[in-house]
Design brief:
binds zinc ion; 126 residues; 2 helices; single chain; seven-stranded antiparallel sheet; mainly beta
Length: 126
């Protein structure tokens, strides 16, 4: 993410594509991901990066009853999606035990971000 973060007045649900990206990063079987898999059921999009990438800010309507992960700010995991059109990197950030940002970057730059693409392979990093 290199742009300015814009927080919306009205949050919204994740799009199908955003949800797919999130689920890919959370598809590992590490127990440390368990609280975030629960959080993913209730997560909403609160804002976005304005640089043209697909990064969104994550939040919750309420955090009551949500399981939390480890405190501190860090990257929970990364999914690198090889597509027919280039590579998309998805990084899930957390802060204070809650997921905070889904960073989505296309290796050919923001202008060229493909509207449609076919997933070839997905590599996961934790
Ligand atoms: Zn950006």
């Amino acid at each position: 993410m290199s742009g300015v973060v814009e927080i919306w007045e009205n949050s919204r649900d994740l799009t199908a594509q955003e949800r797919r990206w999130l689920e890919l990063v959370l598809s590992g079987d590490s127990p440390s991901l368990d609280p975030y898999k629960e959080q993913a059921k209730k997560v909403i999009a609160m804002g976005r990066c304005t640089c043209g990438c697909r990064t969104i800010e994550l939040g919750f309507r309420t955090i009551e009853g949500l399981p939390k992960g480890a405190p501190g700010d860090f990257v929970l995991g990364e999914a690198v999606i090889e597509t027919d059109n280039g590579e998309i990197s998805v990084l899930l950030h957390s802060g204070g035990g809650l997921m905070t940002e889904l960073e989505v970057i296309f290796d050919h730059g923001v202008e060229a971000f493909p509207l449609q693409y076919e997933e070839k392979t997905v590599r996961l990093f934790y």
